[in-house]
């Protein structure tokens, strides 16, 4: 990335020109130069004709910045910067003193902190330090740093606090627009009392500033009361149209989309592109190291010889020529050349400017009646970081700042709801609603997204939002759960904006800040294992960096932005790794290429023992095709006394990751079909583990997830769980070994194959669904019941069919909510048969974890039918069955608690209240 930020002012650089007591400025625009005094335009000519002494500056016309080094008793000298190179030039001798990387300048390469090593806005000479050592001011964003060329950083502060610790009170009066992102800072004539005065430039606007007393004048450069500035020729007064943006062109039936990322406050200094044959994507490329950039008055020339390709093309050489036009002029055409190092496979295509956004996507939004789409949020309503420039943000403007254009596909469509019921939405129902009502939907990769604003999630009741599309061509749909946002007081607030931007980040294949190591391949984590990221993709409540922790500190520190790595993905990821409908979620979601390793999945905990133990329980031997279940137990060890933990510890939540190693030694992270985002909405539910209540439990179905089947073949598997505590500390379970048996006969083989498939895995994960895209799976489960009714594993097919029959299924059709009501008779029949088969022998039918859940689900179905007596009897049968099985006392206690919780919910739903 270039050391200086590329500017769009009508000139590359400006510096004070020594002319005795007279104040003059020298402006350079490629080869063209202008010299002004306070009262007039002195001359306009080639720069080296105006100042012949600069004739030997090798990159005079391509320089992005000039810093004068004039000191009493020394010859006049300047630094000229272009790319990451610097020329130290002596005017009097007419030669370069040195030329090379900027990092070779004095102590710059070692003393400048990470945030000041690229994309600097402006440089300005500072008074010498002690002993006569040179000092320089570095302006970047809303801050300014003072560097002593010998001792290092002297001071770093907000621009409004001034470059120096004293004598800078006037900087606090800067207008809002001049408090960050300055483009040029040059000396103005001193005040009568000797106080320093400067000209600050941003675009076509300027501020004349007395460092002590404040603003002398502000406005357009021709309105500052300096006739010489008003006499600048029009090309110097007119900004350039940014070259940053999307460029496209065709050559025969091949089309190229090129993304140029050069100017702007958070430019990455990269070029990337995609190739298509017709409408079919064929390859993608991106620059991987520093671009060589040559800027003239009329063009940017960009070259690199180390391109990275999605499909390993040998064309590693890049040449791009894009025109620079005035903002009020045309755009012109450019050229892109892709070639092999030795030539011979050249793609040479003309390109034209398609727009300022690096990506463009259509967003179609439907809202259930009674909900509303987010409008805007004024950041001045909340706490923000010191020096932050407040602004009114929409979802579209938040992404525009990241280089992504969100275009509304028409108005928000209201979905009529005449049911009168407070219905929650499962992932299967959301996907079915998308395929039925998303007018732009195709099971293919495309820059189109569906957003559904609805009530709540049935899979994660507290969730604020969910990227639910894990079927077929994934990542095309997201849901916002309005009722949860409403109940937490977040409507119209920062939380609501955050939820939309966060979920769209998942649509674009971004992981949570603290989960990036779980992508394929693993991505780098930010500070404190990602918990310290100030990003749309973190959770405010998870934020922890040093003594700053929790949601309150997050909102005080958050700049309403993505991290640089996330920007790199959004702007320059290969086409299929980001486009909705492309790579599956989590695949290629980071711009790195290491091979995944188990070590990358299991992060070390902190130095302090978290006082917790994690274990995996349940069956260890499973039949071929049998759904694999596991029970997670998180318990206190007593080392730290009572410990507060998340109430949800299963893999569908955010805190527990399960790693599975198959019989061939391949390791994968289990990824549920849907992982709801609760952490950026209502407060995360917690529970305190005490001596009387030492553990929390959760059952997890591991057989099928967003990566497909995890136990598809007979053999030995190993599973390990990792839990991230509220303080970020990791607790790792002992590894548990599971075995999938080989089929013993033809019936085992047929039933196993009928239970093994993507649709069937999804139905077993959801416990059934009416979704049309799962028809094949439902047919397979029905075939198991009809043809193999006596087989032990048929109980799982009955469980899925019975659970689904016992609840409603909703979708959208013709702009209205459509609801299929429960079939109580069918549900009771199938669930009862599944339970009866499984009670006869603990090795037959449902495993104990699933049997427990089936009892409680059957009780709920009886209650829904109004038969509270049968519901109570079913729960009594649950506890009695496991007592008869002789399970350990602590397990019996846990089952009794589960039964009591279900009983209380049933009574509450029936209008009964517990005795006080």
Can you list the strand order of the major beta sheet?
Answer: 21-22-24-25-26-17-18-19-20-23
* Share of helix, binned: 10-25%
The description of the largest β-sheet is: 10 strands, antiparallel
Number of helices: 20
Shape: elongated
**Uncertain spans, ≥5 residues at pLDDT below 50?**
588-607
The overall strand count is: 53
Structural class computed from helices and strand pairing: alpha+beta
Question: Mean pLDDT, nearest integer?
Answer: 89
N/C terminus separation: 68 Å
Nearest-angstrom radius of gyration? 33 Å
* Strand fraction: 25-35%
Descriptive labels:
six-stranded mixed sheet; elongated; 53 strands; 20 helices; 21% helix; ten-stranded antiparallel sheet; 30% strand; alpha+beta; 916 residues
What report would you give on this structure?
The chain has 20 helices and 53 strands. It is elongated. The longest helix is centred in the last third of the chain and has 21 residues, at 889-909. The strands form 14 sheets. The protein has a ten-stranded antiparallel beta sheet with strand order 21-22-24-25-26-17-18-19-20-23, with no helix packed on it. Helix content is 21%, strand content 30%. Helix 18 (848-864) packs antiparallel against helix 19 (868-884) and helix 19 runs antiparallel to helix 20. The protein is an alpha+beta fold.
